[in-house]
Amino acid sequence: MEMPSETAYPAHWEADVVLRDGGTARIRPMTPADAGRLVSFYEHVSDESKYYRFFAPYPRLSDKDVRRFTHHDYVDRVGLAMTVGGEIIATVRYDRIGADGRAAAGTGADEAEVAFLVQDTHQGRGVASALLEHIAAVARERGIRRFAAEVLPQNGKMIKVFMDAGFTQRRSFEDGAVRLTLDLEPTERSLAVQRGREQRAEARSVQRLLAPGSVAVVGAGREVGGVGRSVLRNLLAGGYRGRTYAVNAAFPPGTTEIDGVPAARAVADLPGPVDLAVVAVPAERVPEVVTDCGEHGVQGLVVLSAGYAESGAEGRARQRDLVRGARTYGMRIIGPNAFGIVNTADGVRLNASLAPAPPARGRIGLFTQSGAIGIALLSGLHRRGAGLSSFISAGNRADVSGNDFLQYGFEDPDTDVVLMYLESIGNPRKFTRLARRTAAAKPVVVVKGARHSGSMPQGHAVPVTRIPDATVSALLRQAGVLRADTVTELVDAGLLLAGQPLPAGPRVAIVGNSESLGLLTYDACLTEGLRPLPPRDLTTSATAEDFRAGLAAALHDPECDAVVITAIPRVGTEAPTAGGALAAALREAAAAAPAKPVAVVYVEIGGLAEALSAAASTAPAQPPVPQPPAEAPEEAASPVAAGAPAPHAGPPPAPAPAPKEPRIPAYPAAERAARALSVAAAYARWRHEAAEPGRVPEYDDIEEAAAGALIARVLAASDRPQGTALTEADSRALLGHYGIRVLGTRPAQDADEAVRAARAVGYPVALKTTAPHLRHRADLGGVRLGLGDEAQLRAAYRDLTTALGAPAELRPVVQAMAPRGVDTVVRATLDPAAGAVLSFGLAGPPSELLGDLGHRLIPTTDRDAAELIRSIRTAPLLFGWRGADPVDTDALTELLLRVSRLVDDHPEIVSLTLDPVVVATGGLTVLDAHTRLAPPPALDDLGPRRLPEY
């Protein structure tokens, strides 16, 4: 049969993916130019794998085979290749077939045969699973709904790939082969499988960077000083457990050692494998270093070099080339313009950073996009006696991002709290999804920089989201992320969350030896939404034993959930409350009742904070470990614990777990302690609520197909690719298909027509303009309410047109009066980065002037909708404020859920506004609706997994 002519090369199918072992690979469409690479690839495939693919011995490809596998129309015949280092390591191909199993063309045939071939050395890396995700997405785009595959029974690996994909499938045995049919429509299970694989792969890719078996510092200078030599010195001083190398092209010929470590002029000249390269050379020399590292099998790069996207257009191009070059070889990048990375696990002890003194070992994971902020955070944590499990300063975050760190932090057994300083969020939808999952297991605290500038830092070439920071904050809160406004608050909250249990509620006992400091703490707790109990004053003569007894009594009081100790120096010469004595007393009391958090507010008590933090101090530093032998054999790639070096290293000592002894955080101001406690209380409340997330209810009266047909009709008739607004009638009809009734209006182009309209709907009526510049502007006189008869209506019409303009300009309408209630507004918007967002507030000044709006991601559960209503500051007006009758919030909840379902079912709805929605004591009335349609944007978080390309 005649095949369709070849279409343009589909560049949007290209993608970088992270494989199971943490390495990266490129997926792209096959082209005729791949003929030579395909032949070379096939020569490296074992006879057994060839037999499994072709069901017969097939030692080599004929010229006809090569042409068939490299020439595609990208519609009915599609082939994808996975490459590493420019060479093909795997292929997948589909051919469209008809009902008779023969080759077919066109969307009338919606089934295709699919087949894979993976080079033996790359089997077990999740290659076929990643290719299946991408070829399935391509097939759906081309109108194919099912894949058919025939697999030999002994090819268990391939059968498992299909069976584990999560698609709805059927299996049969025909003519000695297993026949599998997969329905390609994504299912809840297939999406869960895809995200589970993504999580494990991305976590592993970060783990390979943080726990390398060997490190090469490229750019380590001959003289002491300089960036590269400083990193080398810090690696050695920190007692790194793996093998260390120094590389510098300027070393004199014959140089074999620097600072006691093997040295060479190029990575290729080193005597052993390298897992991680720290690059500290001028930006113009980085490309040759990347190639050198890639050819040597380096797994990851930390690029300290500057001169990239932060320096302008030329630097942005250089940064894109850097990422492309590294990913070509399967390497991930931290940076460029990075400060470095730290892993304090005993089996690693990696300080590949510019920080001369590594942080103490602890249970806080820290990620920052700014080197300067990273320095400040490390310094602040060090002063407070806090320890870290890991630290990444990502610089321009051209590759490894906060999302990757969340993936790692979720799995890392040595991390109890994740702290993050972010200046940009490249994929907010994915970030909130990952943060929600991580926050269900451990706290995630974020400081967001660049909140109000309206632009990203120059070095962060990420898509710009249109949603304001207030909306982002609300979505992060929904995901369980704890927002801090400053880096000081970030440290304060991190110390409490890492060292103390979560409070069961907001009740706070205050115990101390200063009435004034106790009152300040009481006020600070009220300001932060806590419920402080009356302070207990121990008097200024209180001894350390008095503090111990007071704390013990408060901790055993069932009426409190947390305790704040306030302490000032004791008047007198003996000063038993100073430093170690008071710390020991407080620790003793806290250890006897560990179920409640304790914080200390102190004023001028020397050594107290240090003595309290000593409860979680680590063991004394051990001497540096001798270099492992260069000829250590490479092990097979497999997941390893976070505290163990990657496979290239020799056998490390068994890693000891990071210490978990409780520490009591101390704060020099009452406000800071109260703020930290409020963060912990909010997190505890979110954890409790997240255990029962609610459900998305079903409604029997929803007509999804009819709504879809209306949307398709409108978009087909529109010639505006950027979208089109629905007419009032279409908008009312669309909402009606989802059980949302909009109160109709009747046009009134003159007073007589207004009277006829009023008679039709019945008095009393409202007269209002629909001109865009006057819509909802009651303050300008564009809305006249409660017109009870013809005389009032005619007078209002005359006043309206006299004051505001001719009827043709005003476009007046008449509408029946709704029952009295509270005017609210409901909005739904589709952001390409964040996804669909549902918003709610009171109509008019509260939402427009004060920005009092709540936000939730769509799809919204019944619990989300109920919380959304209560999240706005003006919510008391809905619940009987000052003796008023409460309105029907159940009806409002149902409206929010129906809007959420409508927008979730039809992503072509890019904007929907119901304003106003009058909520009465019984029921509600939607008075106006505006809907905008557009072809739905591609949402990165819903397609096959891929690394972002900035």
Walk me through what this model shows.
The protein is an alpha/beta fold. The strands form 6 sheets. It has an 8-stranded mixed beta sheet with strand order 1-2-3-4-5-6-8-7, sandwiched between helices. The chain has a 7-stranded mixed beta sheet with strand order 11-12-10-9-13-14-15, sandwiched between helices. A 7-stranded mixed beta sheet has the order 17-16-19-18-20-21-22, sandwiched between helices. The radius of gyration is 33 Å and the shape is flat. The two termini are 43 Å apart.
Summary keywords:
single chain; 950 residues; alpha/beta; eight-stranded mixed sheet; 27 helices; 33% helix; 22% strand; flat
What's the gist of this structure?
The chain is of the alpha/beta class. The strands form six sheets. It has an eight-stranded mixed sheet, sandwiched between helices. It has a seven-stranded mixed sheet with strand order 11-12-10-9-13-14-15, with helices on both faces. Strand 23, helix 15 (515-527) and strand 24 (531-532) form a beta-alpha-beta unit.
Query: Largest beta sheet, briefly?
Result: 8 strands, mixed
Look at the structure and give the mean pLDDT: 87
Distance between the termini: 43 Å
Task: Describe the global form.
Answer: flat
Given the structure, what is the number of helices?
Answer: 27
Please mark out the parts with pLDDT under 50 across 5 or more consecutive residues, or reply none: 1-5, 615-644, 646-659
Annotation, overall tally of beta strands:
39
In quaternary terms, these chains amount to single chain
Radius of gyration: 33 Å
